[in-house]
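Re: export button greyed out
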Amino acid sequence: MAPGPSVISSIAKSAAVAIDVVDARVVYEGTPLFERLSVRLDAGTTTCLLGPSGVGKSSLLRLLAGLVPLDHGRISAADGAPLAGRVAFMDQRDLLLPWLTAQANVALGARLRGEPIDRVRIASLLAAVGVTPRAEARPAALSGGERQRVALARTLMEDKPIILMDEPFSAVDALTRLKLQDLAAELFAGRTVLVVTHDPLEAIRMGHRILVMTGVPARISASFRLADPMPRDVTAFADLHRELLAELGAGARPSAPAPAVHGARAS
Amino acid sequence: MKFARALATAAGLLLLWQATVTLADLPPYILPTPLAVLGAWIGRADTIASHALVTAVEMILGFGLGAALGIASALAVASFRPMRRWLMPLLVVSQAIPVFAIAPLLVLWFGYGIASKVAMATLIIFFPVAANFLDGLRRTEPGWLDLAHTMTVGRRGAAFRILWHIRVPAALPALASGLRVAAAVAPIGAIVGEWVGSSAGLGFLMLHANARLQIDLMFAALLTLALFALLLYFVVDRSLTALIAWQRETLPSDTATVSLPAPGGVR
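Workaround output, generated via the alternate export path:
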């Protein structure tokens, strides 16, 4: 049933690219959201950006997506080529167009670019996310989980080496979220992925790296590297979970560092 | 059920009408009885039909032209930013001058025939269509536009495709509101034009009958006009509802729940 990786991605693993954000400042209505912010997204890995609401993590993602202007600093890809046109964006809302069927929504990017629509690829992507029987349904007839699956397929359809996800599964129930996290981890493997989230468990489940963003103006206050393969059993990470909550300003700091985790607190 | 209710309302109104005439002992040249009006309607059916045809053509042509002009100007303003500065004042001015005030001018310019009435109906219909559609075009869900932006970075003609595939469909419900208002006011333009100067049409027939104290004929013409107005409204309303069937489906609010897994409680 699951199509081969060649259908899901035409991007070779070597094409995955690291991204550097250096000394960035973003100003919103006269107030800086963050200043002197430097972040590196490693090539072909999933970085989870964790932070409380309103800290500016979504702005960082929108900055990378080219949706907000950079006030100061620079963003560059490791291969020197511009970022524009190599990014696929997935919002916490599914952003499906209500007048289009699921498969027409997946084809949106091609349609907006005036490209021919690859129906075979759409069908296999819908199969990969498990909504083949609902291909002809409009978003209103789909469940919240199905809608996010279609949004995942639409993101994959773009076939970009860099994927930006803004709290992608915050609007679905807990069980559906677990399934979608696993699905996304599987389908986006090999790409450079940034997941913005306020949920430590989601970060532990999906990230190769976890960055914690706190403060006003915001900075990266801690970073963790997780070695375990995905999808991860989060119960093994109770200590990390506690530490992340502490970083976010909720809960006590653990006495000992968690095993199998290489944590580093940034100064 | 709905039909029965409408029938009951109509019967009640007719009864009230008859009662008023009988109890107040009104002469037929002030208020004829419903039966007298029905008699005039049947007895003068040829006259009424020939005049009604003229008014119907004026209404339909005015509606078509006004709607087309309104849609075209809203699209022009939405797609070319500089157009707004030129067209918006024109839009407002077109409404600042009451159509009643320029009716004699239009008759002077376009003659006593059908053209001056069509012009008047067009002027009245143009504004609600243009204003509502433009409103809809300017209030596209920002998330959709963000998504479209990341999908089309650096592509030529993307703005037009985004307009056509996202902004216009998204604005259809707003356009529909404008068209419904337009359908409701279409008869005003035609009738005012006929009152100012004409030799045919239901407005002309009413003035003519009024001057000769044929009040039953006047009422028969008025009823015919009301019937036409209702018919136009329902045809427009039904077609629009069928055209944007997806809108009703999207109205029930998203029932997806936002729930965070309890810390450490995910298995």
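Residues 131 and 146 of chain A are 7 Å apart (CA to CA). The button fix ships in the next patch.
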